[in-house]
Give the backbone structure.
Amino acid sequence: MNAPLQSVLVANRGEIARRIFRTARSMGLRTVAVFADADANSPFVAEADEAVRLPGGYLDGGAVVAAALATGSDAVHPGYGFLAENSSFAAAVEDAGLTWIGPSPSVISTMGDKLAAKKLAAAAGIRILPSSDDPTDDSLVGYPLLVKAAAGGGGKGMHLVEKPADLAETVTIARREATTAFGDDRVFLERYVDRSRHVEVQVLGDTYGDLVHLGLRECSIQRRHQKVVEESPPARPDPTRDEAIAAAAVNLARDIGYRSAGTVEFLVDDDSGEFFFLEVNARLQVEHPVTEEVTGIDLVREQLRVAAGEHLGYGQDDVVVNGHAIEARLYAEDPSAGFLPATGTLTAWRTASEPAVRWDSGVEEGDQVGVDFDPMLAKVVAHGSTRSDAVGRLALALERMHLGGLTTNRDFLVATLRHEAFLAGDTTTDFIERHAPATNGMTDPATLRDLAISAALWLQGRNRNEAQVLGAIPTGWRNARMPDQQVVLAHRDTRHDVRYRARRDGSFTVNGDRYALVHRWSPEDLDVEVDGLRRTIRVTAAGDRIHLTAAGTTTTFGLVPRFPVPELETPTGGLLAPMPGRILDVRTMVGDMVATGQTLLVLEAMKMEHHMTAPFNGTVTEVHVATDEQVENGTVLMVVAPTDGEQDG
């Protein structure tokens, strides 16, 4: 057995750093963080016992090792992403006399390379999808196919190609993304199966050859080839098939001498039931909490124990799966705009006390969400005795969360979880394309009017609470007949004029014929009754925005000023930057004729490329940016003048 660990440095950020810290502290270990400049004010930095700045960012392995030595750390945990599957970094950690929390560098070198892993799986008798190491050779793969990063994961460097004419450009894009995200530009081709399920097996081994699996997870609900909903066991279990998948995973892990926690991933053809090996993730997975919830096994604790030289202490028969667990990834992104990442200030971030679910989050209220890193805000995990219990609990927790200040996928997640097809287990990887869950929560007009009244009354309560003089005088009190008080609120394309007058009994007459009564007011919520319907509403005001959580979502109103300042008009045909980022490629110039959907420029943000396309047939009349230029959200990038009759008014 190795010497007991006393401190651990986590070479990662955000929610996974906080999650590892939590287990490490429970084991009596001192924690050390490393952080890039963009994360200087992030919660995980303050939660560690010590933190070291990384001027070169999280991919600077030498600086991470130096930070571990300087802080007297015993071990390095890589989390996932960044350097987690970099065998050279793992070897450097061990060469420095530190303990590496993960599989051996040799295993990472073999299994972290998706190409080498596929060859090993095939040699072990596990079926693999037709693929090609040469990204220019599609002869044995066929279409549609995926271009995938050899050292990748998380959907980065992965793109669908449906026809040969698009292959070369897609390979170029995938190479750039893979280099940015993983420091490795190798990509390969793999057959795409549209009606499939993404099933994976959690394996866990020690340094003495003991190895178990902790059941199966299904991660089929994906957008942009990135998982957004994961569950364990699979939505539609098949005991015979699932046992074969688990056996294949364990045999492969045993063949390569796997230690620590890892995941063997498979693709299941939903029509034939056949399964194919995809890859081995030689690290902790984002979705590991669902396995922890159904088995009761803390995977980070087991990683730390194994790294310290301890025996697992249990066998396969001791692993019991209880109930069902499901996880949703809450992102700062706009589902209605192709899941484009979003930025802004998280002005409202409060979870409900019930139902009880697990929140693994990297942010807190007031945090800024930028473009430097993945836009995931939190993983929300629910456990229940049945799948329907777990799904319902997760959906309700998301609905009751008070969340505002930037665009998120919260309402999309709820719509997915509440969808009839999802509840029936129809969860293949093309679920989003086939069923198109609602991308934004829509509040019905009657409820929206009630919420506008509630917002106005919360604002009047705040005014009275902040009054420096005569604060005890009822709102709007006059010793003569005066007009009603008025607040004008805007929600999306609707405008709400709320006129109210206080009555002697403390209630309000609203808009002449409606009745309202505030039962309780506080800076954070409002217990209000409107025409006999009573709600407790969570409230946050920030600047000219007010966020109200009720009726299954958060509704945001903007305060309309009495004397609005004229806004600058965006030119017709103007392409605006959807987020801050760097101009990677400008493909047109003034005078060029362009067609609807043609890529005009490429914006790089959050390690992903976003293609800005022509909204209609026309001519480029203005270009305001150049390659490598940094732009802010809302910047006019270029202007296209429509061909006569092409623009939809």
